[in-house]
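The passage that follows is intended for readers who have already worked through the single-chain material. We present the inputs for a multi-component assembly, then the predicted structure in tokenized form, and finally a short commentary. You are encouraged to pause after the input and sketch how you expect the pieces to fit together before reading on.
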Amino acid sequence: MGPVSKRPTPPRRTAPVGPETVRSIAQESGFDLVAFGPADPGEHAAHFLRWLEAGRHGEMNYLAANRERTIDPTAWRPGVRSAIALAVDYGGPPVELPGGGRVARYAGGRDYHRWLRERVFSLRERLEAAGVPYGSMNGGTDAVPVLERALAVRAGIGFLAKSAMVISPTHGPYLQLAELLTGMDLPPDPPAAGSCGTCTACLDACPTAAITAPFEVDARRCLSYTTIELRGSVPVELRRAQGEWLFGCDVCLEVCPFTRRSGLRERVGAARPAELRPHRIVETWTLVDILALPAARYEAEFTGTAMRRATRSGLRRNAAVVLGNRGDDAALPALAAALGDEDAVVRSHAAWAIGCIDARHPALASALAAEPDAGVRAEIEQAMAPR
Ligand code: B12
Ligand code: SF4
Ligand code: SF4
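Having made your guess, compare it with the prediction:
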């Protein structure tokens, strides 16, 4: 994020800006939920540090590297005192590629890192134009060194659920969170009503048992991590559990009784906000197309989707795993071709997938004889083993 001081200075006004003016400007800026709270994560910081200490972040080294400024927002923007916590409801029907393969709902439309961040920046400009001192605010969404769930809970956007999601009692769990930290002293809103009560549906349904205890997710087991953040191989013991998930996972949200609170749940096609309508990629690409995804088409066509986060190699790897899980013979020619791919990760996951469908497929023996990489050879041997 570039330094705020590089932007042109908007006209200043002298009248002080009251909290209700801030709230109405924020509401008019396109956020479904707006609430005020402290700019720091409070007691959530200790949980975050314990979580890092236990190594639950896996290879997301940026979380550990930024830990100090994440728990102290004044390191990000000196002088901030309050958070304007913001949320957008993105609920809706499942996102599925033609012929199978699922994408987490948050990634089915245009990349929210772009449009939601623009919305936050536009709010900041409107507030500056209304008289909030220029340069006293910083904000964004997701790719920011703040604990967004902590800020949202402390402001009363929603309650912290056993799935670790922030759930709004009025909109449910499908919330994209964003925030604007300010030097203003905004009166904090009350905590959100609601709680999980005795429900444990998400803990019971999580395909990989990644929710190790209420409020605690071990990212290393979470499909959202293994399909998006993890580079290289998906641990073999988690591949079957990946099921149909090409990118991310929504199981802990889908089973949640609060999901029905989303106002967008039933809205499809043109009835959805433009940025949440299914992207052309998810409407036209199949798993087999993604397995063979050429570099040039990845650059040209996946730009502007959140799916790029997984990298080309990761998307192709994930497509192989899902094809293996689907067990469809029709995918065998494409998987056999992928055994000769230049990317060792694609080769090894294609071998695994063929092993799931037909462990005696002749392409495996040919690939084994030609394979230069010891790790991939081991995967091919495993795929050929009788089961
Ligand atoms: C790293 C990360 C992940 C990791 C780790 C997630 C995790 N639960 O630990 C992975 C890749 C697995 C992931 C997955 C998902 N993520 Co994510 N992720 C992040 C990110 C970038 C940082 C979160 C982080 O620091 N996690 C570390 C843990 C310790 O912190 P936490 O998740 O915030 O959990 C809090 C609570 O657990 C709390 N806590 C736990 N126990 C206790 C006990 C007490 C007493 C207290 C006070 C607090 C407390 O402390 C933590 C800090 O508040 C944030 C964006 C951001 N900058 O905050 C998005 C974010 C959390 N992710 C989000 C989403 C949407 C998802 C997915 C649904 C995506 C998907 N469909 O595939 C899944 C959901 C998985 C799940 N059940 O959590 C949204 C959450 C929206 C919401 N309503 O809560 C965020 C806020 C992004 C955004 N801007 O919208 N994510
Ligand atoms: S996103 Fe999927 S794998 Fe991750 S905790 Fe939720 S249900 Fe489990
Ligand atoms: S499924 Fe049940 S336990 Fe899990 S977050 Fe929803 S209400 Fe809470």
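Commentary: Residues 161-163, 165, 196, 199-202, 255-258 surround iron/sulfur cluster (ligand 3) (CB under 6 Å). The chain has two domains: 4-92+105-182, 201-384. How closely did your sketch match?
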